[in-house]
Design brief:
The longest helix has 11 residues. This protein has 275 residues and is of the alpha/beta class. 46% of the residues are buried. About 3% of the residues have low confidence. It contains twelve helices and ten strands. Strands 3-2-1-4-8-6-9 form a seven-stranded mixed β-sheet, sandwiched between helices. It has a three-stranded mixed β-sheet with strand order 5-10-7. The radius of gyration is 18 Å and the shape is globular. The N and C termini lie far apart (37 Å). Helix 1 packs parallel to helix 2 and helix 7 packs across helix 8.
């Protein structure tokens, strides 16, 4: 069995993180640790993490990202450096993982590949009623429950499909997917180290594409897993990250192209040592 670190990156949305962590109690693959990293400055998530650390049978650690302006890449790099697990699975703190989420990632894990799932955005109506009971029973992942809660959302996304085909819905809903998806993706830790992790000078909304391109430039191929590895994303009123246009442009996907992050794991280590 592959030792796994489940890395959850969270904004300052404790109500969403609470549901995200609650979705882990029914995982069919139970041998993992949980690393929660904040991608925004603040302590709103502390109480939620402490609560689940007392109840989830797997260990939970809250990881601090040292030095510099906090962003998604810095947070994820800090988590990578804080674990010795062989395999890393990434999950958004505003996402709900199906019971087979981790098992789907492990099943696809293989040398020379990285694994990605898809994300389906829920509407506010569904987000408002998701609770521990709906997660505990698994109802939130059932089409009948989703349809009863929000017929409008169901009509837009699921009306002509069966739940087992969720990957097809998600593929339609995310036509710009660049393979790596920080809300549902996985790779061997050594592969992340070989490309110097996430580039901390790349804007949050471009981090996925940048890492995917560099992993592929380094010889890895993307693999899309079964539907069980896809996640439901809770609705948020936060400002869309794509409104920014600063930061470093993602590395291009080209033969013999850029492999290592310019400001990545090594640079974060140096900053931490200098602090």
């Amino acid at each position: 069995m592959i030792p796994i670190s489940l890395i959850i990156h969270a904004r300052q949305q404790p109500e969403h993180l609470d549901l995200c962590l609650a979705s882990l109690y029914r995982q069919t693959h139970g041998d993992f640790e949980v690393l929660v990293v904040d991608a925004e400055t603040g302590d709103a998530n502390n109480v939620v993490i402490e609560h689940h650390a007392r109840h989830l049978r797997q260990p939970i650690r809250h990881i601090d990202a040292p030095g510099g302006a906090l962003n998604l890449a810095r947070a994820l790099n800090a988590a990578i450096l804080s674990t010795s697990a062989e395999y890393l699975v990434f999950l958004g703190g505003d996402c709900l993982a199906q019971p087979g989420f981790l098992a789907a990632h492990v099943e696809c894990a293989d040398y020379g590949y990285f694994v990605h799932g898809q994300t389906l955005q829920l509407d506010q109506t569904i987000t408002d009623v998701v609770d521990a009971a709906a997660l505990g029973s698994g109802a939130v992942f059932e089409e009948s429950w989703l349809k009863a809660v929000s017929p409008d959302w169901h009509g837009r996304h699921l009306a002509s499909s069966a739940m087992a085909r969720i990957k097809d819905w998600l593929q339609r809903d995310t036509p710009q997917q660049q393979f790596w998806n920080c809300r549902s993706a996985s790779c061997f830790r050594q592969d992340a180290i070989d490309v110097n992790g996430f580039d901390m000078d790349v804007e949050d909304w471009r981090v996925d594409r940048d890492l995917a391109n560099r992993l592929q430039n380094n010889g890895l191929d993307p693999v899309r897993m079964s539907a069980a590895g896809n996640v439901l994303r809770l609705c948020s009123e936060q400002v869309n990250l794509k409104k920014g246009r600063g930061g470093r442009v993602p590395a291009p996907l080209v033969p013999g192209g850029e492999i290592r992050a310019v400001t990545g794991l090594e640079e974060l280590t140096a900053q931490a040592n200098a602090a």
